[in-house]
Amino acid sequence: MEKEAAIIGYAQTPYEADSNCSRELLVLQATRAALEAAGLKREDLDTIVTANNDYLDGRTISNMRLVEPAGSWRKNESKVEMDGAFALLYALTRILSGDHDIALVVAESQASVYGGILPGIMMLDPTFDRQRWLLNEVSGAALQASAYMDASGVSEEQIAGVAAKNLDNAAGNPLALRSLPGADAAKVMASRPLYSPIRDLMMAPLCDGACALVLASGKAAAKAEKPVWIKGVGFAHDSYLTERPLESMNSLKLAAGSCYAQAGIEDAASQIDLAEVHERFAHEELMSYEALGFCGPLQGGAFFDSGATRMDGKLPVNASGGAMGANVDCGAGLARVIEAAMQVRGDAGKHQAKGVKTALAHGQTGICAQENIVYVLGGE
Amino acid sequence: MGAKAAKDPVPRVSIPLNPVFGWTVGNWMENFFDGMKEGKILGSRCPDCGRVFLPPRMICERCFAKADEWVELPATGTVQACTEAAVKVAENGDMVDLENPEIIAMVKHDGADTCITARLEGADASIGMRVEAVLNPGAENVLDLLAAYRPMG
Amino acid sequence: MARNEVAVVGVGLSKHVSKRRDVNMAELVWEAVSACYEDAGLKPRDIDAFATGNMPAFEGVNVPEEWGAGHWGAYGKPVLRITTGGTTGGSVAHGGYYLVGSGLYDTVMTIAFEKQSDGNSTMGLNTVALADAAAQLQLGVDPAFIAAFGGGAVGVAVYQASSYMKSSGCTTHHLDKVAALCRNNAALNPCSHLKQPGLTPEEVAKTTLLQYPIRFGHVCPATDGACAMLFTTGEKARKLTSKPAYVLSVASCSDEAALVGIAGSGTTNVDPCEQESCKLAAARAYELAGISDPRGEIDLAEPYSPFAHQMLMFYERLLLCDEGEAPSILDSGSMNLDGELPVCPSGGVISTNAIGASAMERIAECAMQIMGKCGERQVKKEVHKAVAHGWGGAVNLNVVAVLSDTPRR
Question: What is the pLDDT, as a whole number, of residue A32?
């Protein structure tokens, strides 16, 4: 895609264990700030796509009460019940169709008001797995990690190292909920065991928050300051978790393939300057290196050990701290897109990496990262 | 970012909801449960690609064909993935510590192409381990017909 | 304007009945999906993306695509889940329009469904109201009182119906006539749920009064069912079929949410019969479609009407006549299958309501009428342009689509 749609503004609320305010206020806060950042008013919006989930919000038709705070009163509005990174794709198609010029995407949830990992359990096959109460997002991830470790030889310490890198990076991100400056693998390994090999610090912390992004058509973006162009997008759905090989992220690989084809990326490791991946569990980041083509199959551990993905490496991954710093259900993938856009603009402050011209962002939904979406973003 | 959200305590109300769902399992899963009542493990096979689904699926997602051939599978299989659970999920969604950790495994039965997730008896597990299903044909709840797996040996 | 012309080349519907105990949710949806592939002569490998949705809370399954989409031929493809309550099916089909229109995906299957017998839809609808009710619980209002008056669609519908009757002159006899018209149409539709051939308004008038003015005969059933549609580019559509149904435009409009959790549901801050957002969405859809005179140009309408009065109310809000005129237009016979502007030829939502699918089935019916695939219920006049509608949320969400036998401009 060549200058057909661009991100022209964005905002994130601080991520907190308990934001102590209503979801409507979180959405209002993020929406107003994103509009302000884009230099626009509510009246300028043509279409709004929200990302939220009835189970997380505890109400049927979770978008229905977000009409006012999302600025969609008497406007064209819809909802994607997945991560906001997928809602962004819907907004993008709305713009590319030519019917709309300015779109707002806003994503939210509040872990402080829903029952921990219960909504994830409700995603399981209701005829069997759901009722047997063994699988959930954490035990599912642990099973995937075990399969990946067995196939690749990656160790628990390497997985802990990824978590430590991101928690250290999160120290530079003022919005992050959780950070551990100077963290190392040993610190992560000492945290509470959940489902082996997953420990508390290898699991992204669920929290409260909202984030919003303003997307503009090429024509509308031409007037904006520092537009961040969407160069490509790819999205794929994988099989249910018991019906696919768990040691690789096939749908992420497919998504990356179609995204790279649009963006003209032939060698991801050399053409991409920075990546923000949605690692809900630390081992997923290692698996994503492979699926995104940063390294060869089963080479994620070695690629991490090379230091390439550290802040000062040749391809920093999750300079923001990633989801390890804060993981708002429905929002953390969109937050990755926002963080990648900040890096392209050079607006990331203390966690700004050097020389970012082309950045990749990834979002996911579902147990064992069943649905994956990838964007490549670029500046002028 | 604009002003932080107001920090006055937000009034909270907890609303207990106990909706009752009655999920239809469909003829394929019913056949699976009926088989186990007779001590048989039945999978469905795709006539196009030959893949065998256990638990059975009506549709092969790769071929979009009706997997309407039935095969009886042995009780034996191989561990594809496993985890030692130090916690379990309580009804409120919290992860609470287990007094005795337990093993959860994904098992591919011999002759099957998909996995069943179940508890694995014993304290040790590894990928590639040979196991067999512990059937409980008299179970009142069909979900307990396949009670667990145990290591072969 | 759209980068790609968008056309419908296939429609598939499952059986629609109260309880399907032989299939689970994913398998029920497969029936519609498989019929749709067959209708269009396409296979899963021809599909570039899927858009899907249902009312999530009703069956207690969160993102059922995770478990189900493999049954629908979606392996390895994008599956975008769009859910917006009663408008879900419409919103999902709009997703199909935008995904194809964007030029990113050429051929898109849209799928909407509900298996109400698996779940508890009154509970589902009550959670629409519960968060509002929470505030009242805190004030010491008796929960039983809130439950009795708070949620559920019937609560809102009676207030909406009486408000509409007062402003339009619609009588209870008109409600009976609407029900009879729709159920007779449904009798000609193999995929409808409540088929009552020969039903008369007099018989409807004898059914139990639920809450004035709504009788049992004025209300939709709870249905298990699914609908699938195939959208593709104009160019590909013309190769696939001699008579595609082009989607000229889609528009949605979201209004202030009514406070439904209070006795007098839906009437405390808005008049639920006003439906300004329906008028705005319709106006925008006609504008995008290049229709300047909807009354003269629209040949057929499928308004979303789970309750009898809504067929007339939304006929007006879709700008097909002046406000208050619909009852007399009904009396004129114009809305019949052989009339000047047939309404709900499918039998409407009042005859079949698999909630998440319902708003898509309105669009599907318009497409099938344009393609001439409606068999016994095919309307007498030739259909060049048709309008489909969906309604939901806290009486505040409206979606409109305009279809045609000729492409946009």
Answer: 98
Q: Is A236 contained in some domain?
A: no
Instruction: Report the pLDDT value the prediction gives residue B92, as an integer from 0 to 100.
Output: 87
Whether residue B37 lies inside any domain: the answer is yes
How far is C343 from A229, CA to CA, in rounded Å? Answer: 45
Q: Using CA atoms, how far apart are residues C351 and C196, in angstroms rounded to an integer?
A: 9
The whole-angstrom distance between A114's CA and the closest CA on chain C is 13
Neighbours of C188 (CB within 10 A): 18
On whether the CB atoms of residues C194 and C73 are closer than 8 A, the answer is: no
C-alpha–C-alpha distance, residues C61 and C309, integer Å? 32
pLDDT (mean) for C254-277 = 72
C6-119+221-404 classified as CATH 3.40.1080.10 = no
- Are residues A3 and A218 in contact, defined by beta-carbon separation less than 8 angstroms? yes
Contacts of B61 in chain C (CB under 8 A): 70-71, 73-75
Position A131 scores a pLDDT of 92
Helix (H) or strand (E) holding B84: strand B76-89
Residues A98, C1: C-beta atoms closer than 8 Å: yes
Cα–Cα distance for residue pair C44/C268, rounded to 1 Å: 48
Is residue A304 assigned to a domain?
A: no
**Residue A1: band (very low, low, confident or very high) from pLDDT cuts 50, 70, 90:** confident
- Tokens 């937050």: give the residue: A335
* Structural domain includes residue A307: no
Please state the ipTM of this predicted complex.
0.98
pLDDT tens digits for B134-143?
A: 999 999 999 9
CB C57 within 8 A of CB C127: yes
Check residue C69 and report its DSSP letter: G
Mean pLDDT of chain A: 97
3-class SS of residue A312: coil
Chains touching chain B, criterion 3+ CB pairs below 8 Å? A, C
Burial class (CB in 10 A: 0-12, 13-18, 19+), C88: buried
Q: Any idea which residue has 């250290």 for tokens?
A: A168
Count of structural domains within chain B: 1
Residue B9 lies in a domain: no
Residue B47 in domain: yes
pLDDT, one tens digit per residue, over A40-91 is 999 999 999 999 999 998 888 889 889 999 999 999 999 999 999 999 999 9
Instruction: Give per-residue pLDDT as tens, C366-399.
Output: 999 999 999 999 999 999 999 999 998 878 899 9
CATH number of A48's domain: 3.40.47.10
CB of C56 within 8 A of CB of C81? no
Three-state SS at A229? strand
Domain holding A54, by residue range, is 5-116+206-221
Burial A64-74 (b: 16+ CB within 10 A, else e): bbbbebbbbbe
CA of B66, closest CA in chain A: separation in Å? 16
Domain residue limits at B130:
26-151
Q: Closest by alpha carbon to C55, among C329, C396, C387, C392?
A: C392
Number of domains in chain A: 1
Contact C390, C318 (CB under 8 A): no
Tens of pLDDT along A232-255? Answer: 999 999 999 999 999 999 999 999
Q: Identify whether A108 is part of a domain.
A: yes
Kindly report, residue by residue over C126-171, the tens digit of the pLDDT.
555 555 555 555 555 555 555 544 444 467 788 899 999 999 999 9
Q: Is C117 on the interface with B (CB under 8 A)?
A: yes
Distance CA A106, CA B25 (A): 36
Per domain, the residue ranges of chain C are: 6-119+221-404
Nearest-by-Cβ selection for C24 from B17, B21, B24? B24
Say yes or no for a CB contact (<8 Å) between A138 and B95. yes
- A208, A109 in Cβ contact below 8 A? yes
What percentage of chain C's residues is helix, strand, coil (to nearest 5)?
Answer: 45, 20, 40
